Amino acid sequence: MKSNVTIAVLSGVLLTATMISPVFAAPHKPAKMTCEEFVTLDDMVKPKVVYWAEGFNHKGKPINATVDIDATDKLVPVLVTECRKTPKASFWQKIKKHF
Question: What are the pLDDT digits (tens) for 41-84?
């Protein structure tokens, strides 16, 4: 019985890891990303990119120890709308405009 539970848990972990890993393995570089690239990201990843942008400057150095999750989550749809209007624009410039 114990081994069945262990196998079931390990199977779940492996299945989850294989489903999520492509999302996190993608080479996201928010400081160099275009709006078009941001819009094509999975909806689960977009907030994480905005969190990064709020907490780091363009050289990847931390500038802020806290991230306002609620404000950032509200900003994601605004950025998506703006980026759809100008897909070739710099995502970093859009972020800087809002922070």
Answer: 999 999 988 888 877 654 556 665 677 788 888 999 999 999 99
Sequential DSSP letters for 49-85: HHHHHHHB-TTS-B--S---HHHHHHHHHHHHHHHHH
Q: Could you list the residue range(s) of the whole structural domain that residue 66 is in? A: 26-98
In a domain? residue 5: no
Q: Does residue 7 belong to any structural domain of this protein? A: no
pTM of the model: 0.64
**Alpha carbon distance 59, 24 (integer Å):** 20
CA–CA distance, 40 with 78 (Å, rounded to integer)? 15
CATH number of the domain where residue 75 is located: 1.10.890.10
